[in-house]
Design a protein that fits this description.
mainly beta; 9-stranded mixed sheet
Length: 318
């Protein structure tokens, strides 16, 4: 099998990729890290004073980057980027009159370091980051796949991968995907926020390790199972599906939850079920707040938890 040594790589050089797509490329050169670049929420504009029309450099604004990506463009960033990079990328946000679902968007390329919370709640698109640069944890709802550009790592949305891009992208070890069962197993020990954000199909995401903020946020279908501890806002605005944490969660579990089920095989923290509108939370411990109330389990609850492999003392929070 010596001929494999001479096998030619199919990876393109960055310059060739940019030249092939020169009509789509918008280049941004940074002197210092800037937060919220390519952030489709504009730093959660509904609860901040963020100005999307603010100029980053020359005639490029925060809105310019987002609109360019919505039009299928390529954003090429030279320099270090700040926090919340590519937040909710590919989401047709209801706040701006959208459906809340996925829209196809373009590509981002970075020659620089990337700060925390890159790709939180990311739903579509592709991000390439120079392999010589660093990415700080926690990351967001992103996973690395085999790159097709030489010298660059390639990241896509976890949700998009399990829903359909598994057909065209190759997952990197130690992560695994079972196509027949629709099960993604994340084993890389990278701490992430918003795992499974907006999942809308009957797929399963298993994380072997700890996660951070907002696991399963805005899910409608499927399962997210964490074999470890989770951060704040687990199952926030959950609208269906099942989120299982085989450990403890931090505060505000089930915040503004609408539907679905959360199971915490441990302590679900304080402010449990704050502003909750529907759905069920099962936990061994937790401090609920109105309108959520704490109940003893009935026989159906016991059988349901037993079907998931749980026994012993749990409470139901509704």
């Amino acid at each position: 099998m010596l001929f494999n040594i001479f096998k030619k790589s199919n990876k393109k050089k960055l310059n060739d990729f940019l030249e092939e797509n020169k009509d789509k490329v918008l280049t941004l050169e940074l002197d210092k890290p800037i937060n919220c670049l390519c952030d489709f929420t504009y730093n959660f504009i509904w609860q901040s004073n963020f100005n999307p029309e603010e100029k980053i450099k020359e005639n490029i604004t925060f809105k310019t980057l987002v609109e360019h990506l919505k039009n299928g463009g390529i954003v090429y960033i030279k320099g270090n980027v700040g926090k919340r990079f590519c937040s909710s990328m590919g989401v047709d946000l209801k706040y701006f009159g959208g459906s809340g679902g996925r829209i196809k968007v373009g590509t981002v390329i970075v020659d620089g370091d990337v700060d925390t919370r890159f790709g939180i709640s990311m739903l579509s698109g592709t991000v390439y980051i120079n392999e010589k640069n660093k990415i700080k944890e926690p990351m967001g709802n992103v996973i690395e796949v085999e790159s097709d550009i030489k010298g660059y790592r390639k990241f896509i949305s976890i949700t998009e991968f399990v829903e359909y891009r598994y057909r065209e992208e190759k997952l990197l070890k130690p992560n695994k995907f079972d196509k027949n069962k629709g099960v993604l197993e994340i084993n890389d020990k990278i701490k992430r926020d918003t795992v499974g954000a907006r999942l809308n199909e009957d797929k399963t995401i298993i994380v072997n390790g700890d996660v951070d903020l907002s696991t399963g946020i805005l899910m409608k279908k499927g399962r997210v199972i964490v074999n470890g501890n989770a951060g704040k806002n687990t199952g926030a605005v959950l609208n269906g599906g099942l989120v299982v944490i085989n450990g403890n969660t931090n505060d505000f579990t089930g915040f503004e939850m609408k539907d679905g089920i959360i199971v915490v095989d441990g302590n679900a923290g304080k402010y449990l079920g704050a502003k909750k509108k529907g759905g069920v939370i099962y936990a061994r411990e937790g401090k609920e707040v109105p309108p959520t109330k704490k109940y003893e389990l009935n026989n159906d609850d016991v059988e349901f938890l037993k079907s998931l492999g749980y026994s012993g003392k749990f409470y139901k929070f509704m």
